[in-house]
Specification:
Pfam families: LpxB. One of its GO terms (molecular function) is lipid-A-disaccharide synthase activity. Its EC number is 2.4.1.182. This protein has 17 helices and 13 strands. It is of the alpha/beta class. It folds into two domains: 176 residues, Rossmann fold, CATH 3.40.50.2000; 194 residues, Rossmann fold (3-Layer(aba) Sandwich), CATH 3.40.50.2000.
């Protein structure tokens, strides 16, 4: 008798945890006896995943920050590899987190374990040399964007476009009035959503700038309200500390635990830290401005590694500067407030962005979890291991 399928997975942050949880549930529809284990977060665990280490151990961003945690992260990776080699799974699926997963995937592939990477690294934006690393490390890659499979042509890697999960869960049309009612907001007031990042390291560099931006916007729009969704108690504490230091406690600002999509749905304009949240903002069909700051050491390393003029996903998908981007020293409160304030007042721009973002939404809406499961299932059948007990 065949043993139950054993699927090892690694997801390193909140977005990977969500993505992997959807994939687990989709696979369970086809292989209900499958066992899932490795490194994952609470959403994966709620889907039946056994987390030998929590995903938050890997949620570190920026070269300087990673170096400080390198010993612990490398130790976890080595321990997991030893377990996988000692008791091989039927397949290993690395969910995003390429700096952690590619090292691991290369070694499990060399050991004869089917190696799959879910979410192609951003080789189209920077560090294009990782395409060769991907070819050495994985048998298959699941791509969220339609232009990515062509990048793997001739590498021997099976590349499947599966769409982006955010496009599945966010409605094509946003009900502004309903979103404001759910948050207890007046229907006719100007509302800004501020998303300074989901990690403590991001808040350390961007919280003050976002607060100062809110001050300037409030001077220009005295009736405006500000919504700030924060991912954790730690990030909320950091933001509240900066509010106190900035003497901005009197700003009409509401801090939310999570509820990022609800805040963006209720907003007229969005200020967002570069990352997946920029795509969420675009799928809301709202004017937005992208900002990002990091440690000076990390910035010195990364600023010359990109080979596209854009960092925000809406601009990369549009292949032009559809929305403003301000990075590091250019990410000043004055620049951000002026750009966002001008955008929300320009009706022609709002209509143009709505049309562009609708096109992007339809392109990415592919029922990602089911597409990913369908792409993986043939390999599961071929690589299923036999139960040694017969």
């Amino acid at each position: 008798m065949p043993a139950p399928l054993r699927i090892a997975m690694v997801a390193g942050e909140a977005s990977g945890d969500l993505l992997a949880s959807h994939l687990i549930r989709a696979l369970q529809q086809h292989v209900p006896d499958a066992q899932f284990f490795g490194i994952g977060g609470p959403k994966m665990q709620a889907a039946g995943f056994r987390a030998d280490w929590p995903a938050e151990k890997l949620a570190v961003r920026g070269y300087a920050e990673v170096l400080r945690h390198y010993r612990e992260i490398a130790g976890i990776r080595r321990q997991l590899l030893n377990r996988l080699l000692a008791d091989p799974p039927d397949v290993f699926i690395g969910v995003d987190a390429p700096d952690f997963n590619l090292w691991l995937e290369r070694r499990v592939k060399a050991a004869g374990i089917r190696s799959i990477h879910f979410v192609s690294p951003s080789v189209w934006a920077w560090r294009g040399g990782r395409i060769a690393k991907m070819a050495r490390a994985v048998h298959q890659v699941l791509c969220l964007f339609p232009f990515e499979p062509a990048l793997y042509a001739g590498t021997g890697v099976q590349a499947d476009y599966v769409g982006h999960p955010l496009a599945d869960v966010i409605p094509l049309e946003i009900d502004l009035a309903a979103a404001r009612e759910r948050l207890g907001l007046m229907p006719d007031r100007m509302v800004f959503a501020l998303l300074p990042g989901s990690r403590q390291s991001e808040l350390q560099y961007m919280a003050r700038t976002f607060i100062e931006t809110a001050k300037l916007l409030h001077q220009r729009f005295p009736q405006a309200r500000f919504l700030v969704p924060l991912a954790s108690r730690e990030t909320r504490t950091l933001f509240e500390t900066e509010l106190w230091r900035s003497e901005a406690q009197e700003l009409p600002m509401t801090l939310l635990f999570g509820h990022a999509q609800e805040a963006m749905a209720a907003a007229d304009g969005i200020l967002v830290a570069s990352g997946t949240a920029t795509l969420e903002a675009a799928l809301m069909k709202k004017p937005l401005v992208i900002a990002y700051k990091m440690s000076p050491a990390s910035w010195r390393i990364m600023r010359n590694m990109g080979y596209q003029p854009w960092v925000g996903l809406p601009n990369i998908l549009a292949q032009r500067f559809a929305v403003p981007e301000f990075l590091q020293d250019e990410a000043t409160a004055e620049n951000l407030a002026q750009a966002l304030g001008n955008a929300v007042c320009d009706n022609t721009l709002r209509e143009r962005l709505h049309a562009l973002f609708t096109e992007i939404h339809l392109l990415l809406r592919q029922n990602t979890a089911e597409q990913a499961a369908a792409a993986i299932l043939p390999a599961l059948g071929r690589h299923r291991r036999r139960d040694p007990r017969g």
